[in-house]
Amino acid sequence: MAAAPPPASTGSTKLDALKQTAAAADPTKLSGLQLYSRFAFAGAVCCSVTHGALTPVDVVKTRIQLDPVKYNKGLIGGFRQVISSEGAGAIWTGFGPTAAGYFLQGAFKFGGYEFFKQQSINYLGYETASNNRTAVYLASSAAAEFFADIALCPLEATRIRLVSEPTFASGLLSGFGKILKNEGVGAFYSGFGPILFKQVPYTMAKFVVFEKVSELVYQTVDKNSLSSGMQTTVNLGSGLVAGFAAALVSQPADTMLSKINKTKGLPGEGTTSRLIKIAKELGLRGSYAGIGARLFMVGTLTAGQFAIYGDIKKALGATGGVEIAK
């Protein structure tokens, strides 16, 4: 959400617009590159920290998706299987590309969301944007995620290869270089379709549910009367609900992304034909393999992201812009 707390609604959209515009024009508040670079940095840190910390969960989740016959004992059982067969270090496989990839993705995602939301308000006008804020949230998050995925895709492809083939390479740089040398640049984007199919609905659900849950909370209590700690708690709770919604929406594409990045395609086999084949093999039930691990992972990291994001914005003084929540 935007950095500044929205003033209480007056009941008049036109009057709310005047108040918001006046608040945004306050010379003590940041604007332009100064503001959006802070949004981007806060987003980069919150995504890198949370995704990096949950690398072990992601490793087990990916193993369940790729080999559900072997890894059929749930999240805790999966941890035990990986550690017993490969050692404790195995659960941190892919930490490098995860932290680096989501640092870039977080900058584009959160910074882009704030940017596109403001552009939508400028284009539509405050009243129209406020009355259609759900559509604004959805469009802004989708646009931001598209650009974020361009940055994320090569590192996500490297991560999945490292997790699915423990002997493939020793880490981010060696794995990235090996794929580039042996398979070319195109291999990094073989999963671009699935990653868009996964991440765009995921991010749309994530932001719109977060915005809506937060709005409901702040209709009950005045945000300005809450302590900083309580505001962080609201961000955590809203983020947790948003994470569950996002995980359920994007799970089938997440499974397909893991499958398509596990191995390279057959000679002459296109990405679309591979996706169709994988979808047929999986079926509905197979596409939700590992959903328990992913609900835990996405709920936790989304809650953490919005809490960290809000706190970093405050620390950086990233206040400004116009908010359309009521």
UniProtKB/TrEMBL annotation:
Gene3D superfamilies listed in its UniProt record: Mitochondrial carrier domain
Record keyword Nuclease present: no
Spans of repeat Solcar: 34-119, 132-216, 230-315
Membrane topology recorded in Swiss-Prot or TrEMBL: Multi-pass membrane protein
Alphabetized InterPro entries for the sequence: MCP, MCP_dom_sf, MCP_transmembrane, SLC25A3/Pic2/Mir1-like
Gene Ontology biological process terms, A to Z: mitochondrial phosphate ion transmembrane transport
Main location: mitochondrion
GO cellular component terms attached to this protein's record: mitochondrial inner membrane
Compartments where found: Mitochondrion inner membrane
Transmembrane domains' residue ranges: none
UniProt GO MF annotations: phosphate transmembrane transporter activity
Similarity comment: family membership: Belongs to the mitochondrial carrier (TC 2.A.29) family.
Entry protein name: Mitochondrial carrier
